[in-house]
Design brief:
Elements: E1 2-6, H1 15-19, E2 23-26, E3 31-34, E4 38-41, E5 44-48, H2 54-63, E6 69-72, E7 78-80
Antiparallel strand pairs: 1-5, 1-6, 2-3, 4-5, 6-7
Protein name: Ferredoxin
InterPro entries: Fe-S_cluster_ET
Keywords: Electron transport, Iron, Iron-sulfur, Metal-binding, Transport
């Protein structure tokens, strides 16, 4: 499973931070940060989701009010926009 985070879309509500510890707050920028994320496109960060964190990652994506977090399965199919 893979997570992608669109930093430009993020509005800093930090709901993802409460759901998964892979996200942290960058209060100076007013945005969340995907820890360990690699920038794959301008402003888009991605990383693999460990098996034990899959449920937390899904909750983080579902709670984002602006859909800045997407979850993909191992085949590249988007599970959560």
């Amino acid at each position: 499973m893979r997570v992608e985070f669109d930093e430009d879309t993020c509005i800093g509500m930090y709901q993802c931070v409460a759901e998964w510890d892979a996200f942290s707050e960058d209060k100076s920028a007013g945005k969340a940060v995907l820890e360990g994320g690699e920038e794959v496109e301008d402003g888009i960060f991605a990383r693999e989701v460990p098996a034990e964190a899959e449920l937390d990652a899904k909750f983080a994506a579902r709670t984002c009010p602006v859909d800045a977090i997407a979850i993909y399965d191992d085949d590249g199919e988007q599970l959560i926009p």
